[in-house]
Amino acid sequence: MTMSETKAHARVTLTYAERDYLIMGRDQAGGKLPIFDARGQEIDPRVIRSCLKKGLCEPWFANPIKPDWLVCRLTPAGRRALR
Predict the structure, then answer these.
(1) Which of 2, 40, 57, 73 is most deeply packed, by most CB within 10 A?
(2) DSSP 16-75
(3) Euclidean distance between CA atoms 43 and 4, whole angstroms
(4) Helix (H/G/I), strand (E/B), else coil: 78
């Protein structure tokens, strides 16, 4: 097994905030992740950026009205991390 294959199969450690964020996209069409939580509070951008850095989600599209909002969707690695 090569180093990259080993990394691809390594278990990702999720924080509670990351896990809660990723779970919200699990049953959405295309794995779309929310910008706001169930209480209407904005998801902490640090959580979203952390998931992006770990490859658990990817940018979906840029929002021209709110360019600072990170609109993302789950990646296959994100779905595996939730198992």
Answers:
(1) 57
(2) HHHHHHHHHHHTSGGGBPPSB-TTSPBPPHHHHHHHHHTTSEEEEE--SS-TTS-EEEE-
(3) 31
(4) helix
CA dihedral 72, 28, 21, 63 (to 10 degrees): 30
Whole-angstrom distance, CA of residue 58 vs CA of residue 31: 10
Distance CA 33, CA 48 (A): 9
pLDDT, tens digit (0-9, with 9 covering 90-100), for 4-60: 444 555 678 999 999 999 999 999 999 999 999 999 999 999 999 999 999 999 998
Q: What is the pTM of this model?
A: 0.82
Tens digit of each residue's pLDDT (9 = 90 or more) over 47-63: 999 999 999 999 988 77
